[in-house]
Amino acid sequence: MSDVSQGPGWWQAADGKWYPPAPQQPPAPPAPPAPPAPPTFQAPGAPQPAYYAPAGPKNDGMSIAALVCGISGLATLVLCGIGIVPAILGVVFGIIGKKKVEQSGGALQGRGMALAGAICGAVAIGLFLIWLLLLIIGAFNSDSSSY
């Protein structure tokens, strides 16, 4: 072998031999053409295109607020009675939301959420009143002379 390149693209390996260039890959064939766009007109007697059904009734915001307030009233009741505020709001929002859903004629849904929020709020209020009653009874029955 010679020390001179045999032509453009030839390369010399570590063993001192010259090797030809790698064969070129043929270019990829062009992509097939896109399918034609559908016509913008309807032929007479052709079926109408399918449309999606309209969305169902929406949830009432007052019902959602009632459920959130009622549950949070129950959950935060143990924090020194601070849960009484969301519990009262849960009852109020529940009553308003239930009336709105019933008066909407089916346009709104969420009667169950409003009812659940009002019930959770009422339970939290009842538990708060029992806790308050026990606190008052305990305050009057304590013997302060023993301290």
User: How many β-strand stretches?
Assistant: 4
Structural class: mainly alpha
Task: Report the sheet with the most strands, covering strand number, pairing sense and barrel closure.
Answer: 2 strands, antiparallel
How are the strands of the largest sheet arranged? Answer: 1-2
Cα end-to-end separation: 113 Å
> What is the residue-mean pLDDT, rounded to a whole number?
84
Shape: elongated
Poorly predicted residue ranges: none
What does this protein look like?
The strands form 2 sheets. A two-stranded antiparallel ribbon has the order 1-2. It has a two-stranded parallel sheet with strand order 3-4. With 147 residues, it is mainly alpha-helical. The N and C termini lie far apart (113 Å). Helix 1 packs antiparallel against helix 2, helix 1 runs parallel beside helix 3 and helix 2 runs antiparallel to helix 3.
Please sum up the structure shown.
The chain has 147 residues and is mainly alpha-helical. The protein has helices spanning 61-75, 84-103, 111-141, and strands at 11-12, 18-19, 58-59, 108-109.
